[in-house]
């Protein structure tokens, strides 16, 4: 259904799994080079030659990894050697003599550690040396790189009878191809982006051979680009395709001059299929002769990588999605049953329906599996395919894994291990991006070459890179969650091998004594017997209990895991155990010295054991929705590496002293202000790296001077901020206004929420044009404020949400500001909800539209609002109206009784077309 996989795709397996080793070795080399390590060995009188031996043996085995990774596919002995090597690398990394671990150990602990380290390190070195000595026996070669087999390129020809479900995609592309309204000065590029095997080449072939396209373009050319982007070869292919002549030129300049003459003032269509190049210079060089073409010429590029498409500055990008189940089955049946009627084979048809589900809408999978079963008539053979993993299918007959694996092979090592780690998530699971980045950070996957970027920013870049390469797809139910295509999940499982395991569909996948990462869904936690197999896994690093719609009966398992199994897991780095029946944590938790990530969100715990404060490596502590939690440990300030502390939706009454010692803290939700002098808002002034902060019970800030001590104005990294007073508190208005005045944040702030503020006016800094980075502003339950500040002066504001402001009666010129600059020039979403006294909304004094970028306007439950609307943009907007009995602008005195939405331009507002809006819900993930 897509281009024919190249022979190199089918047989060149170098680097699969190598990333897990090369990335691990890179970390080990970096740590071994740390001078503090030598200092530790010297002060403890340890054998420093062991460090030299470890470094030498790592270099020795690293030299043959490429050859080993290629041979392990067909040689079980080599495969075993590679797995042993990975396991040894994990053991070396488990040693706690590295400087970042030593920094939080006292002198007595360092002496004890030194005595234990030497024999363990000696054992690891001996194991690695034994593996290195097997290189010759296994015939492993250094830097093996044989001549790559010839590549079979795609062509422009297509059998349309084998194509299903692409009519809409085809028509959308043709519409953009034939549109002559492009203002692009160069040759407009149209990109088709999608995962391997989804049918990008086939779609390009359909468009290329369409009668309308042939008629519209005077010249057409098809060039298969592939991984090795050779400007000369591609240029020659284009020339030969345009001229139908063989070309013997050997100089690029001569060839490009000839091509330019051939294309001069001709409207042409060029398809560049299977493009991988991310070097703009190559694309710029290739495109020079193309600029001679006539107005209306087009280039179609197919790629798996959004970054490649973006490099070419496309005027339109078409993200190609998978087929529906029905379309996928039709394609499968076309190849499996050929001209036969599937109904004549009821048993095979039933099995085929399950096989098609495994294809998960990927055309290449449907075509490949259908072709493999074409000559098979025995049900046992069909069931064997149904029950096989994609990597168990014969290499010479299946192109599914090779096609997908090609995307994996193009990843740098640090991204390969991040991707492989994702195999612990069940198929279809919605992964929350923010938490995934924290997990990667805890596992040590994030490299920080530029100290200006935080680890979280590095992780976000990693994720965006994987997303752009189609390894993730955005969830339809939540913008911050993502899913992996089922076959991409299979690819991750293949890459991670026996080191990642999971419970899925009631089955334990891939558990072995070498497993390091383990996950399962909460609704499968229905009995402690499921953890019997885990008792043999001694070096587990990750234990993830994943939330699901149905938490299941997990009380018995909770107790067994927390009291009996957990204390034995001395190497855990990640522990997520959000079991709602969990009421108490064992004191032994403090013995898990490697822990970097702890998630006990949505549990019934009322306090944390004090021993948790000895976890000096801890980076993330998530306790959200622990509604019975009333206090944090007194010595929490000892967690000097803590970066994320989430205590939102708990019942904390105050914060312990010493929070100001958490100098690495990036995220703090929620800081509960207490009147007591030992726990006050001044602690925040020491946390200069905060990026996300919410402050609760601000009524307990006793003076403006105390508010100033929070020093929010100097927090250059702060991006999201919440100010919240208790709704039923009786605080003095004047004091409240002064407090908010002195809580002025840094102008780099992007998101601000103010809730339950009881002052009658907002501070002067709110609406100040200096806050040019402000993107989202929410004002909620500010019941005494009668007007809004000059928010129109916030040049980057995209979302403004005003809710439950009982005192607000009208919006006038003050709302827009008096700076002379066009107000609200970036605002996309504007929402007014539950404003019982609001009556009038005056337009601005500026000429033209008041909200030029507005895309959505919501007015809900504003019973006294009588209009009129301001000068809205002429572009299509989404207008949502909820019961506003006196609102006349749209209905001419006719009552609007229910929420309605409108997608029309301004000229049609008098006769709206209403459509119901549907809310989608999905299974939320970690």
From TrEMBL:
Residues 912-926 have a biased composition (Basic residues). Signal peptide: none annotated. One of its GO terms (molecular function) is ADP binding. The keyword ATP-binding applies. It comes from the Eukaryota. Residues 564-860 form the Disease resistance R13L4/SHOC-2-like LRR domain. Keywords: ATP-binding, Leucine-rich repeat, Nucleotide-binding, Plant defense, Repeat. GO terms for biological process: defense response; response to other organism. Residues 22-95 form the Disease resistance N-terminal domain. PANTHER family: DISEASE RESISTANCE PROTEIN RGA3, PLANT BROAD-SPECTRUM MILDEW RESISTANCE PROTEIN RPW8. This is Disease resistance rpp13-like protein 1.
């Amino acid at each position: 259904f897509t281009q024919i996989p190249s022979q190199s795709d089918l047989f060149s397996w170098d680097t699969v799994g190598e990333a897990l080793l090369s990335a691990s070795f890179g970390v080990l080399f970096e740590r071994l080079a740390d001078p503090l390590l030598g200092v530790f060995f010297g002060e403890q009188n340890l054998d420093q030659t062991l460090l030299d031996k470890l470094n030498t043996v790592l270099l020795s085995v690293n030299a043959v990894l490429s050859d080993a990774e290629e041979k392990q596919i067909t040689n079980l002995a080599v495969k075993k050697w590679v797995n042993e090597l990975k396991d040894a690398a994990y053991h070396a990394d488990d040693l706690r003599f590295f400087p970042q671990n030593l920094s939080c150990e006292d002198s007595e602990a360092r002496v004890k550690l030194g005595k234990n380290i030497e024999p363990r390190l000696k054992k690891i070195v001996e194991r690695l040396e034994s593996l290195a000595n097997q290189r010759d026996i296994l015939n492993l070669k250094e830097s093996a790189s044989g001549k790559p087999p010839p590549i079979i390129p795609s062509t422009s020809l297509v059998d349309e009878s084998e194509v299903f479900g692409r009519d809409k995609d085809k028509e959308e592309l043709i519409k953009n191809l034939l549109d002559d309204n492009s203002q692009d000065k160069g040759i407009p590029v149209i990109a088709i982006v999608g995962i391997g095997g989804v049918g990008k080449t086939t779609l390009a072939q359909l468009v290329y051979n369409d009668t309308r396209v042939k008629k519209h373009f005077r010249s057409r050319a098809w060039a298969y680009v592939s991984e090795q982007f050779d400007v000369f070869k591609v240029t020659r292919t284009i020339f030969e395709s345009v001229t139908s002549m063989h070309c013997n030129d050997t100089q690029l300049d001569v060839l490009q001059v000839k091509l330019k003459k051939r294309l001069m003032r001709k409207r042409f269509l060029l398809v560049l299929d299977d493009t991988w190049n991310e070097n703009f210079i190559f694309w710029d060089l290739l495109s020079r002769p193309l600029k001679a073409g006539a107005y209306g010429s087009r280039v179609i590029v197919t790629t798996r990588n959004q970054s490649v498409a973006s490099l070419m500055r496309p005027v339109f990008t078409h993200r190609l999605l998978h087929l529906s189940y029905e379309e996928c089955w039709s394609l499968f049946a076309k190849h499996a049953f050929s001209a036969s009627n599937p109904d004549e084979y009821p048993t095979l048809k039933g099995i085929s329906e399950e096989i098609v589900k495994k294809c998960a809408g990927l055309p290449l999978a449907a075509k490949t599996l259908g072709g493999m079963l074409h000559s098979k008539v025995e049900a046992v053979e069909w069931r064997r395919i149904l029950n096989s993993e994609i990597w168990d299918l014969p290499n010479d007959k299946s192109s599914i894994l090779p096609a997908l694996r090609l995307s994996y092979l193009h990843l740098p090592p640090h991204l390969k291990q991040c991707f492989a780690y994702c195999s612990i998530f069940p198929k279809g699971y919605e992964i929350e991006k923010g938490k995934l980045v924290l997990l990667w950070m805890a596992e040590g996957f994030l490299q920080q070459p530029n100290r200006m970027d935080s680890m979280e920013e590095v992780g976000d870049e990693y994720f965006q890179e994987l997303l752009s390469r189609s390894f993730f797809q955005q969830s339809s139910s939540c913008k911050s969650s993502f899913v992996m295509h089922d076959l991409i999940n299979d690819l991750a499982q293949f890459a991670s091998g026996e080191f990642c395991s999971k419970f899925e569909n009631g089955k334990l996948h891939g558990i072995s004594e070498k497993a390091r990462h383990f996950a399962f869904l909460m609704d499968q936690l229905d009995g402690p017997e499921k953890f019997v197999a885990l008792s043999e896994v001694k070096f587990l690093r990750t234990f993830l209990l994943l939330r699901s719609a149905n938490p299941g009966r997990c009380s018995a398992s909770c107790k067994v895991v927390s009291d009996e199994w957990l204390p034995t897991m001395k190497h855990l780095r990640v522990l997520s155990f959000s079991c709602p029946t969990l009421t108490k944590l064992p004191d032994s938790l403090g013995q898990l010295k490697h822990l970097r990530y702890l998630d006990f969100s949505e549990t019934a715990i009322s306090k944390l054991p004090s021993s948790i404060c000895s976890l000096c490596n801890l980076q993330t502590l998530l306790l959200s929705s622990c509604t019975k939690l009333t206090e944090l440990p007194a010595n929490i300030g000892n967690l000097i590496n803590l970066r994320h502390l989430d205590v939102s939706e708990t019942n904390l009454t105050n914060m312990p002293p010493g929070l100001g010692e958490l100098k690495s803290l990036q995220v703090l939700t929620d800081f509960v202000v207490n009147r007591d002098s030992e726990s006050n808002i001044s602690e925040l002034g020491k946390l200069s790296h905060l990026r996300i902060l919410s402050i609760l019970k601000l009524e307990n800030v006793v003076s403006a001077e105390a508010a100033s001590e929070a020093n929010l104005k100097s927090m250059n990294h702060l991006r999201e901020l919440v100010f919240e007073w208790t709704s039923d508190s009786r605080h003095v208005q004047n004091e409240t206004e002064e407090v908010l005045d002195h809580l002025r944040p840094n102008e780099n702030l992007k998101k601000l929420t103010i809730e339950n503020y009881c002052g009658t006016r907002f501070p002067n800094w709110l609406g100040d044009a200096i806050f040019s980075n402000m993107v989202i502003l929410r004002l909620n339950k500010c019941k005494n404020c009668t007007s809004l500040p000059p928010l129109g002066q916030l040049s980057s504001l995209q979302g403004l949400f005003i809710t439950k402001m009982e005192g607000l009666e009208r919006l006038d010129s003050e709302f827009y500001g008096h700076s002379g600059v066009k107000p609200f020039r970036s605002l996309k979403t504007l929402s007014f909800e539950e404003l019982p006294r609001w009556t009038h909304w005056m337009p601005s004094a500026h000429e033209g539209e008041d909200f030029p970028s507005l895309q959505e306007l919501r007015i809900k439950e504003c019973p006294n609002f009588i209009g009129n609307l301001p000068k809205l943009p002429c572009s299509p907007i989404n207008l949502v109206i909820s019961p506003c009995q006196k609102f006349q602008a749209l209905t001419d005195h006719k009552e609007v009784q229910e929420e309605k939405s409108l997608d029309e331009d301004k000229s049609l507002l008098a006769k709206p077309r209403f459509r119901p809006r549907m809310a989608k819900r999905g299974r939320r993930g970690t």
